[in-house]
Amino acid sequence: MLNFEELSHKLFSLVIFRNLLKDDVIKSFTELADDQKSEKEEVYLYADFLSKLFAETDNFSEYVLNAVLEDENAYILKRGHRNLGKHYDEALNMELDTLNELAAVRSDDVKKCLHLENESLPGWTTEETDIKSIYLSRIENISKTGYGIWAKYHVFIIKNGDIVPVKYPDTQRLSDFSGYERERSEVIENTKALLKGEPCNNVLLYGDAGSGKSSTVKAIANEFKDDGLRLIEVKKNQLYSLPDIMDRISGNPLKFIIFIDDLSFTKNDEDFGALKAILEGSVNGRAKNIAIYATSNRRHLVKESFADRDGDDVHIQDTIQELTSLSARFGLQITFSRPDKNLYSSIVVELAKKYGIDMPEDKLIMKAEAHALRAGGRSPRTARQFIEYLAYKQESEKD
User: Fold this and answer.
1) What one-character-per-residue DSSP string does 89-128 give?
2) Which of 12, 136, 294, 362 fits a 20 to 30 Å CA distance from 38?
3) What is the pLDDT, as a whole number, of residue 153?
4) Calpha distance 242→250 (Å, rounded)
5) Please, are residues 96 and 135 in contact by the beta-carbon 8 Å criterion?
6) Sheet containing strand 162-165, strands side by side
7) Cβ of 269: how many Cβ atoms within 10 Å?
8) Model-level pTM?
9) What is the DSSP string of 9-59?
10) What was the pLDDT predicted at 299?
11) Which of 96, 107, 94 is nearest to 32 (CA)?
12) Comparing C-alpha atoms, which of 206, 170, 172, 200 is closest to residue 188?
C-alpha cells in the first residue's frame, strides 16, 4: 500500500538528486502528498500532475528513470574526476532506492490514497524498473555514456555564450560516402587516438567546396557518439568564447571535437589572434579530451592580397609569415581536392547503387558529367545532388 506521506518525506530529503524536486512532473507529484487539501483541490492536483506527465509520456516509470539518468548532480560531476568517500555512496544508494520506489507508484494506489476511486480520472503506466542497477552501470561507463545533457545529445552549438544541444543533427554516416577514403581515414585515425586518450592533432580539412569536408566531421561525430565523442560547433564570430568553452569541458570524462566550419580571416580580423592563441596553447594548455577540427576552402586561412606584400611594413616578411602561418598550427592538414573524371564517375556509380538507380553505367556517367557542367564542376556534393534527383524521379515514375 502506498504511503504518500513517507514517500514525500523521502523525496524532500534528497541531497544528490535535489534538482529533481524542481522537475515539473516530480514537483507536481509531491504536491499531491499534501494532506491539507479539499477533494476539489485533490482532483485538480491529480489532473495537473497527469497533464504534465502526458506532455512527455504516459509511462511514469520511464519518466523517472530518464530524469534520474539526465540529472547533472554533485555526485556524477565529482565522480568523473575521482573516487568519492563512503558518505557519497551511502547517499546515492539510499536516494536511488527512493527514486525506484517513486517510479513504481501506480495511479490506482494514488487514487485510493486520495479517495478518488469513484472519480472518472485517467491513469498512467508503470513497469518494473531497476533504476539503481541502470544508474550504477551508467556511472561505470561514464566516459562513453556521459552524464546530464551530455548523455542525451551528442551535437551542440553555442548560443548566447551557452552550450546548447542540437536535437535533430545531421544523420550522415561514414558508410554514406564514396571516394576520399584515404583522406577520411586520416581524420578517423586521429579521432580514435582522441577517444583512447592518446596524443592527437588539431585538424584542418581544406580544399574545394562540396568535397565533403564538413560532412566528414559530422559523420565522424555520429559514428563515434557511442564511444564517448561529442561535437561542439563554434562559429567564427564566437571564437572569443573558446577559452571559456574549453575550460567548461576540460574535466568532462567524454571526448570533444570543437568544430569550426568554413574558416577564413581577413588581414585585421580580431578573431585571428583568438584562434592562434588556442592552437599555440594558452597558459593552461590544451586539455587531452579536446581537439579542434576546422574546415576551409583555403589552405592559408588569412585572405592576403598582393598589396599586403608591397605595403610599407618595415618587416614585411615577418608580417607575411604571421598571416600565412595559422594553418601550420594544425598538426594534421588534409586536402580535399576537386575530383577528376575517374573519381567523380566512381562516386556517382557507388551512390547510384546505394540509391537503387536503375540505369546503364555509361548513360549514368554521361548524364552525371552533363549535370556537373551545369552545376559548376565535379564534386561529391554535385554527384549526390544528381543521384538524389534521379532517385526522386525514379520514385515519381513508379507512382
Assistant:
1) HHHHHHHHHHHHHHHT--HHHHHHHTT-TTS-----B---
2) 12
3) 93
4) 12
5) yes
6) 162-165, 155-159, 229-233, 255-260, 290-296, 203-207, 332-336
7) 17
8) 0.75
9) HHHHT-STTGGGGGSHHHHHHHHHT-SS--HHHHHHHHHHHHHHHHTT-SB
10) 57
11) 107
12) 200
Longest dimension (CA), the chain: 92
Q: 249, 289 in Cβ contact below 8 A?
A: yes
What is the DSSP code (8-state) at residue 296? E
Contacts for 189 with CB less than 8 Å, ≥ 6 apart: none
Q: Tell me what pLDDT residue 81 has.
A: 59
pLDDT the model gives residue 201: 92
Q: How far apart are CA 213 and CA 236, in angstroms?
A: 17
Report residue 160: phi and psi, to 5°: 55, 40
Q: Report the candidate in 208, 206, 311, 330 with the shortest Cα–Cα distance to residue 267.
A: 311
Nearest CA to 384 out of 361, 360, 367, 368 is that of 368
Here the cell at position 308 is 599586403
Instruction: Give the helix/strand (H/E) hosting 195.
Output: helix 181-196
In whole angstroms, give the CA distance from residue 154 to residue 146.
10
Phi, psi angle pair for 295, to nearest 5°: -120, 150
Cα distances from 49 to residues 100, 110, 347, in angstroms, run 19, 12, 55
Q: Which residue has the cell 495537473?
A: 48
Residues 135, 148 contacting (CB under 8 angstroms): no
Cβ neighbors of 227 (< 8 A, separation 6 or more) are: 144, 195
What separation in angstroms does the CA of 45 have from each of 31, 41, 48, 295? Answer: 7, 6, 5, 53
Percent of the chain whose predicted confidence (pLDDT) is above 70: 86
- Which contacts (CB < 8 Å, 24+ apart) does range 244-247 have? 244/161, 245/158, 245/163, 246/278, 246/286, 246/287, 246/290, 247/284
Whole-number pLDDT of residue 82: 60
Hey, which bits of 238-319 come out as E strands? 255-260, 290-296
Instruction: Identify the DSSP state of 177.
Output: -
* CA distance linking residue 341 with residue 69, whole number of Å: 51
User: What is the C-alpha end-to-end distance of the chain, expressed in Å?
Assistant: 59
Is residue 349 predicted with pLDDT exceeding 80? yes
Beta strands (DSSP E) in 252-347 are 255-260, 290-296, 332-336
211 vs 177: CA distance, rounded Å: 11
